[in-house]
Amino acid sequence: MAEDVYGQDIKMDENMQVVAAANGEAVMTDGPETGCQDIKLRLLTYLGTLFYDKDYGALIMDWVKDENTAENRQALEIEVVRRVRLDPRVEYGTVRASVLDWDESGVKLSLFWQFIDEDHLFNLVMETGTEKGDMVIKDVNPY
Prior knowledge:
Strand content: 15-25%
Largest sheet: 4 strands, antiparallel
Strand order of the largest sheet: 3-4-5-6
Helix content: 10-25%
């Protein structure tokens, strides 16, 4: 797949802080790394809070302190799949989300998808309800 399909962005580390080169300039992403970062940002942003795009984001934090029921697990998985499928670079039908753990402290979820013209799945693990109430999204397979 051509790199221009993914575009470029300022690279962020796993704490979503800008990565700087030794000379102080911001490091840029390219290729699938850009797509993965875009998906992380969409999932970390609460739906409707981006001032110039009210349809951007996800409602994941609505489930953080909710009860662990089959209906809530399924609803959370559907929400994550729905938001990832909004990325036009994601191959249709490849997005899968699965709740790994859910207790009074939060939720842990695994997410898989494939980009168009890529030959492997990408995988993220999301954890919500940490001590600070943050959501953490980690790459299982670095680019």
